[in-house]
Write a structure and sequence with these properties.
2 copies of one chain form a homodimer. The first copy, chain A, is an all-alpha fold. Chain A is built from 8 helices and no strands. In chain A, helix 4 (about 115-135) runs antiparallel to helix 6. The structure holds a DNA duplex (30 and 30 nucleotides).
Chain lengths: ~240, ~240
DNA sequence: CCCAGAATGTAGACACTGTAAACATTGCAT
DNA sequence: ATGCAATGTTTACAGTGTCTACATTCTGGG
């Protein structure tokens, strides 16, 4: 009977907002209102992902440590290793969540539209807006933090990923004769580069002079996607 | 007389290639062929920058530690603090070196051309090529590793920086009637986003299918800058 | 219902990191 | 020559990623 009554004051940092992905539809696990110090967390895995995102958002990337993440989730420093092999594995989970959420937001913004060009506008704007609204996810998704190659994000049930959405938008535009014909890949790469570059510049605060709010970003994204599509039109000049 | 003869075997890791920036024109400091264990390094500051870049290139960003950098430069782990207040300050030096080098490479590639469009092509291609050829610098320049805002890169002697080069190229094109008129900033942002996005996608290995070599990158950059300029032409359709 | 094993969380340890303070060595200007 | 400023070294400390051994809880088959 070594060390009986000890450390009774843990588990106070539970309860986090379900920010992204899997919105609301966690199994059954969480949140009986009394957080009485139960040994098992319920859904520690997701709690760690959420804590990591929050930590990056609040303190920046340099402050991201597994131990602090564990602290915020209300568990000891070794507990994360029951769910992630690695610090990098945790980041991979964040990235996957980001990829799923980005594709979802793109689909949602595209859904109301039927015209190929309007759908392409929507896709591009959603791409940029996702980055602006979720910088930690975007940074993890595309940042330099992975040594081993990241496993591909799981796309559940035939839902199209972000890149696939762009490609099919472009090809639809070509099929309708609204974009210049030929190989779709160069055009896709142009579109992808444009929105990715704009998003990156926003997230990395390189747009010092320009206003920084999300609504300003939306306006800029709108202008830029219009300019882009203008450039991808069939060269009907005479 | 505490600890007299000790640690005679340091200073074996001297001599590094002068990779970027300040090419060759270091004061007088370095490289008397005998590296006999002199106490003072000669140009430790630059050696640390070089070592950091090499380390990132070889082992990835996660492996970057001040202590390993110091080890590679052949000094003890505290020596860097005589030259940099911080780990972040060292990274800032890397970024500055990168900004200077990128602007230089852009200027060099633009120099042979006089036509505004050709100069714009050259600027864009050089931007992408810099990223492909110097991924560590590019990552540090635009990565998420700075908590405090980075001090602006020093632009010696009226030399134009990378962004300034882009802006003036665009405005020259407008003045010549080769690009659509009006506010130059949206067009500049389009161009910048395009090349920055392409560069980022390359550096972060998101272009899995496409070939990865530097020559492939050059070809892609060429195609994309042509497409871009095509899109920025005056809308003379009719 | 019970209880054995599987899941999950904890405690402790180790090597490594960033950073600071005190000290040692060297170069330079007077 | 000498004293000071610049530069490099030692030592120390808290925080980190990860491993191993241990404790607690959950779950399903008798």
């Amino acid at each position: 009977m070594r060390r009986v009554l000890k450390s009774r004051g843990r588990h106070q940092a539970r309860e986090e907002a379900r920010t992204l992905a899997t919105r609301g539809k966690r199994k059954q696990a969480a949140e009986a209102p009394e957080d009485k110090g139960r040994y098992h967390h319920g859904d520690l895995r997701q709690a760690l992902v959420d804590a990591a995102v929050a930590l990056i958002a609040e303190e920046g990337f340099g402050a991201l440590s597994l131990r602090e993440v564990a602290r915020r989730a209300g568990v000891t420093h070794a507990a994360p290793y029951r769910h992630f092999a690695d610090k990098e594995a945790l980041l991979e989970a964040v990235a996957h969540e980001g990829f799923r959420a980005m594709a979802r937001e793109m689909r949602e913004r595209m859904a109301p539209h039927t015209g190929p060009l309007e759908r392409l506008y929507a896709a591009g704007e959603a791409y940029v807006l996702f980055a602006v609204r979720h910088p930690p996810h975007f940074r993890v998704m595309f940042g330099p933090h992975f040594t081993r190659p990241m496993s591909p994000p799981p796309e559940p049930e035939g839902e199209q990923g972000a890149f696939t959405l762009l490609v099919s938008s472009i090809e639809a535009g070509q099929a309708a004769g609204l974009l210049r014909p030929g190989e779709s890949r160069p055009l896709t790469l142009t579109a992808w580069s444009l929105v990715h570059g704009l998003a990156s510049l926003f997230v990395d605060r390189q747009l010092g002079e320009s206003p920084q709010g999300a609504e300003a970003a939306e306006a800029l994204a709108r202008v830029q996607t219009r300019l882009l599509v203008e450039g991808l039109r069939p060269p009907a000049r005479g």
